[in-house]
Amino acid sequence: MPENLTDTNLKKKLSVMITGGSGLIGKYLTSTLLAEGYKVSHLSRKASQFGKVRVYSWDPGEKIIDPLVFEGVDYIIHLAGANIGEKRWTKKRKEEIMNSRVNSTKFLHEIIADNGIQLRGFISASATGYYGSVTSDKINTENDSPGTDFLATTCRLWEESADLFWKDGIRTVKIRTAVCLEKNDAALAKLMYPAKYGILISMGNGRQYMPWIHIKDLCNIYLKAIEDQDMNGVYNAVSPQHVTHIQFIKTLGEILKPKIILPPVPSFILRATIGEMSCVVLSGSRVSSEKITDSGFKFLFPDLKDALRNIICS
């Protein structure tokens, strides 16, 4: 019978290591896990210590890490990866985005396997970009085939590298994450920025869908992936409410109350300005949350307006 990980005494004995723990999601997730009683450590470029969290250094590109950092670790949550929206997608940048996800996962597996480290579970981030940069009314489920563009290919290879743990008999969960809503997150922050000047701006034709999830719900899905021993494979981390980009902007406007919502920025201008990366904001389809809700997960913020109000007004 699986151990009951809702037992506080057992949680205090379990250790979770997070790669990319210094990022936005990693910081929130660290707070969530500590509040639940878990021991938490990070893998980062620089070793340090803050609060209860020990940070160990690694360099997956150079394959540098001390295997001893995994002693006593029960779960790894793999969030590390270069920011897809930080720089223009040159050939070199695309290689960085891909390698920071795929090669780092393979490196983790190599270290774990070669040193006979016994994990209770490996939980990897992924993204709803797996389904491809297209706009349609289709509701994508975890059983659908991947797209063929750059982001879809990156997600597919990322998940395939995570499956190396599954092939070794380690329970493996892959979380396909939608746009994560948090006040300081790049995606929402960029949409909110013009409101400082009393305006809001939409992009493209506005009919592209914008799958989203509140940061607290995302962290709770990762928590569930640790505690629910029946969770295996892929899960979409996305709110059950489907909204288009223009619906998102209008809902944001109801909260921020700008003086004016400007006409949409034409697609050709975005393509000329940021190149291939424009596909992230100019396209999008609906993504199903049915599998995660069928597992017993309950969203704290299933409604966009409630989610935005909580983030912006709190």
Outline: globular
Q: Give, in spatial order, the strands making up the sheet with the most strands.
A: 3-4-2-1-5-6-8-12
Structural class: alpha/beta
CATH topology of the domain at 8-178 and 213-238: Rossmann fold
CATH class of the domain at 8-178 and 213-238: Alpha Beta
Please give the alpha-carbon distance between the first and last residues: 42 Å
Question: N-to-C SSE series?
Answer: HEHEEEEHEEHEEHEEHEHEHHEHH
Please count the helical segments: 11
Number of strands: 14
CATH architecture of the domain at 8-178 and 213-238: 3-Layer(aba) Sandwich
Mean pLDDT: 90
CATH superfamily of the domain at 8-178 and 213-238: NAD(P)-binding Rossmann-like Domain
- Major sheet description: 8 strands, mixed
- Low-pLDDT stretches: none
How much of the sequence lies in strands comes to 15-25%
Radius of gyration: 20 Å
Walkthrough of the structure:
It is built from 11 helices and 14 strands. With 314 residues, it is α/β, with parallel strands linked by helices. The chain has a domain of 197 residues: 3-Layer(aba) Sandwich (Rossmann fold), CATH 3.40.50.720. The strands form 4 sheets. Strands 3-4-2-1-5-6-8-12 form an 8-stranded mixed beta sheet, with helices on both faces. It has a two-stranded parallel ribbon with strand order 7-14. Strands 9-11 form a two-stranded parallel ribbon. α3 packs parallel to α4. The longest helix has 24 residues.
